[in-house]
Amino acid sequence: xxxxxxxxxxxxxxxxxxxxxxxxxxxxxxxxxxxxxxxxxxxxxxxxxxxxxxxxxxxxxxxxxxxxxxxxxxxxxxxxxxxxxxxxxxxxxxxxxxxxxxxxxxxxxxxxxxxxxxxxxxxxxxxxxxxxxxxxxxxxxxxxxxxxxxxxxxxxxxxxxxxxxxxxxxxxxxxxxxxxxxxxxxxxxxxxxxxxxxxxxxxxxxxxxxxxxxxxxxxxxxxxxxxxxxxxxxxxxxxxxxxxxxxxxxxxxxxxxxxxxxxxxxxxxxxxxxxxxxxxxxxxxxxxxxxxxxxxxxx
DNA sequence: CGTACCCCCTGGCTGC
DNA sequence: TGCAGCCAGGGGGTAC
Length: 299
Prior knowledge:
The chain has helices at 4-18, 41-45, 160-167, 174-179, 189-199, 219-237, 258-261; strands at residues 23-28, 50-56, 59-64, 69-73, 78-83, 92-93, 99-100, 108-114, 118-124, 130-134, 282-286, 289-293. Helix 1 runs parallel beside helix 6 (219-237), helix 3 packs across helix 6 and helix 5 (189-199) crosses helix 6 (219-237). The protein has 2 domains: 4-142, N-terminal domain of MutM-like DNA repair proteins (Alpha-Beta Barrel); 160-262, Helicase, Ruva Protein, domain 3 (Orthogonal Bundle), CATH 1.10.8. Strand 3 (59-64) and strand 4 form a beta hairpin. By secondary structure, the protein is an alpha+beta fold. Helix content is 23%, strand content 21%. It binds a DNA duplex through helix 5.
C-alpha cells in the first residue's frame, strides 16, 4: 500500500486520538510479522504513554515517554483501525466477509488498548509489514532502519543539488533509483510512475544522465524535484490514494487521490492524458515491478 | 560501493 | 462455480 502520502494520512488520523495517552495493555496475536516481535514487547509497552506519532519516509514512529520508539512499516497491506467513542475509523471487511479492525479479525495481529477505551489495531494480511522496537538507549540515528534512509522529500534536506549528488554515479534507470529509499525516503511504485510522467522523463533513463558533467542538476532534474514535492503534497492533501487493498482511513467511501489523479499508474493501453500527446500508456517491468509510462512524451 | 535477484505472504481478479 | 495463473502499494538479504 502505503507510500509516503498514505502513511502520513494514517499518522494524521492516529495522532489526535493517541498522543498523550497511556497504553493500558497490548495484545500480540502471533510471534511475528515480517520479523519477530521484540521479546516481551507487550509487557514492555504496558503503562507507557504515547508522546507523539511521527513519520519518517514510509515509517510510522510511535514515540513513547521513556524514549523508546515503535517503528512500524506497513509493507504492502498494513493498516491501522481504531475503535472507541468519537472515533471515525471504522472497521472494514474483506470481500470474502472476514472482518478486520475490530481487534478480532483473522489479520488483526497487534492491538493497543489505550486509556479511555480506545483500541488501535494493526491489520496486515500479507505480513510484509513489521513493528520494530527501538530501545530507549539507542540513538535513533543509528537504528538499522532509520540510519539508511535518504532525505525527507518535503524537507529542506532535499533539493536538486542533493539529488544530483546521489544520481551522479548511478548507472541504473531513474525509476529504480527513485525507489531506493536511501536516495529519497518515501516514494513508492505509484508515485514514482506519476512523477516521471509529469516531468516527461522516461523511467528507463539512466540516472546519471540527469546530472551535468560538473555535478550540478540539469533543469529536468530540478523539475523532477518540484514534481516530487507537488505530487506528494497534493496526495497528502487529498488523504492518500485508495486502492483495491487499501481503503482510506476515514472509511470505505473515501476514494482518496487515486480515481481522479493518476495519469499513468494502472492505465496500460489507454491514451496519454496530456493535451498535446497522442501516446498510449505502456506497461513494462523494471526490477520485477510494473512501470507505467507514455513512450511518446516521456524521454 | 552499486546493482540484480529472490523471496517473504495472502487476497483479488480474470479467463478458461 | 471452481480453479489455475497472474498481479499487487515494500524492501531485506545476499551474491556478484
